[in-house]
Amino acid sequence: MIENRNLILAVIISVGILMASEFYFKSQQLPPSLEDTEKAEQLADATSPRAPTDPSRGVSENIPLPSKPNGQSIAQASNSQPQLPTRLSGALDGVNFPENREATLSKTPRIDIITPRLRGSISLKGGIIDDLLLLDYRETLSKESSNIEIFNPKGAVNAYYAQFGWVPTRKTLVPTAETVWTANRKVLEPGTPVTLTWNNGDGLTFKRTFGIDENFMFTITQEIINKSSTPMTFHAFGLVSRRTTPETTGFYILHEGLLGVSNDTLTEIDYDDLQDLGQAKQSSKGGWIGITDKYWLAALVPDQKTENNSRFLHTKQQGVDTYQVDFVGPAIRVEPRTAKLTENQLFVGAKEVRLLDAYEKEMGIGRFDLAIDFGWFYFLTKPIFYALLWINNHVLNLGVSILILTVGIKLVFFPLANKSYISMSKMKKLQPKMAQIKERFGDDKMRMNQEMMDLYKKEKVNPASGCLPILIQIPVFFALYKVLFVTIEMRHAPFFGWVQDLSAPDPTTMFNLFGAIPWNPPEFMMIGIWPIIMGATMFLQQKLNPQPADPVQAKIFMFLPLFFTFLLAQFPAGLVIYWAWNNFLSIIQQWVIMRRMGLTGKEALQ
């Protein structure tokens, strides 16, 4: 009995420790310097060092690539192939930064981007996409709050942009970040692409065409027209550059930083890990590479039919961190009086699961859904997410969908849980006999344990069955937690009453009498109504279970509901609602079984 109680206690405390460790303080970033210089960068062929993978996902999670003592990645240090000679700029070229976004945007001529879900512009200087706002998403629940800004103009303190171009294999003029292009129209809209043109004055004409769909996918077609008498060879490139280290949630279960899929394997590199590495390289046919926030993604998608070399890069310029992902494509030879073109995509927007799945299927972008950090329970998390969406299509409330899904999960595991509760009810009936054994052999622990084991065998009771409901609930709990925490569909999704965001903690607290007192307690004192309901249901369920024979264990178990009330108070409200509702359903199921086993209400609660 004691060993089995220890097992249950260990499982519960392990879960508590695991969840508690997720609450790290957000790292504070130093204010960025207002000085910057443009630094030369080289792209080179290299293969990616392989990180350990999870066989269930085919991915590596948050595992920094190995490095040499001097900070170089192994791929970089061991690369003996000649480097391409052309400089690619992923840094800023300004030294004076204006006070606001509008002032920066007004410094360069622009092409407007107008779609049902995006507003922004393309700078004709460099042909750079550096201004994008999401129309469907705001900073807070307030309708008056600002739209989410993804890309910020080159020249701003927090510049974030995408750039494309060509790398020649021998010296020739190509468009750079300083090139001012000529556009054939003033507005980029779905179904109405914009073509930029530039002539190098030496027989080469460069064209860059931007197209966009109804959502967040750009198509960039680059063409070279060779009117000279000399054949030329080029490599197409694309990059996404981000200046300053962004503020992250600081949760270890969520990756925010640089990531990409190469050879069907996901690589994730945190900002601080890349600062140590300097750079990491990989080579793959197809794949994609990008920079991700919790809900937003900027990803380069090279031609999926060609072999591309990609890179994760960190540089520090005048004390300011700059991060870049880029790719360079295969050599393209342009004969005299001919033209060649290449096409790739750029995704900039919200990480909506169904949209990423659609792009993966329609455009052949391998494992594009891994941009969302579904975690090690990927095989469980994604089906739960789609089940919630399917239910929500009928009830139109994701909170209600969670309640209905919980009932469905309970029905699936009903036979297993029912058998467990029957065994626990039998143990509850044996409490008086167990107390007698304890009284008789309390001083002889070995004899007491032997007598209890004989009693279990005689009554055909399995004391370990009490662990089963907990073990069943743990993977579902974490899978649902992932759904609520990482999927944008849960962001700002309302339930009823005071819960208007299922992905955020319950906003009420008993320490100001749930809003009656005009005082905002510190975060650790935010114990809302739903966490209290959860704690109460956990306490009642615990009372229905057989009590530990060891008094010390009994006292520890008595404080667990209080411990979990404080712990889960800072978890998403949707998860607390699920836990409380699941406890309530378990209490009903267990109560009915106990009454059928002949236990009275008083006996059941003893």
3D architecture notes:
Helix 6 crosses helix 11 (468-486), helix 12 (529-544) runs antiparallel to helix 13 (551-568) and helix 12 (529-544) runs parallel beside helix 14. Helix content is 34%, strand content 24%. It folds into two domains: 74-372, Distorted Sandwich (Beta-galactosidase, Chain A, domain 5), CATH 2.70.98; 382-605, no CATH class. The two termini are 18 Å apart. By secondary structure, the protein is an alpha+beta fold. It is built from 15 helices and 19 strands. Residues 1-11 and 17-99 have low confidence and may be disordered. The chain has a nine-stranded antiparallel β-sheet.
In short:
The chain has 606 residues and is α+β, with helices and mostly antiparallel strands. It has helices at 2-20, 74-78, 101-105, 271-277, 353-363, 378-395, 398-412, 414-429, 431-441, 445-459, 468-486, 529-544, 551-568, 573-596, 601-605; strands spanning 110-114, 118-123, 128-138, 147-151, 160-168, 182-183, 187-188, 194-199, 204-212, 217-226, 232-243, 257-262, 265-270, 279-285, 288-292, 296-301, 307-317, 320-334, 338-350. The protein has two domains: 74-372, Beta-galactosidase, Chain A, domain 5 (Distorted Sandwich), CATH 2.70.98.90; 382-605, no CATH class.
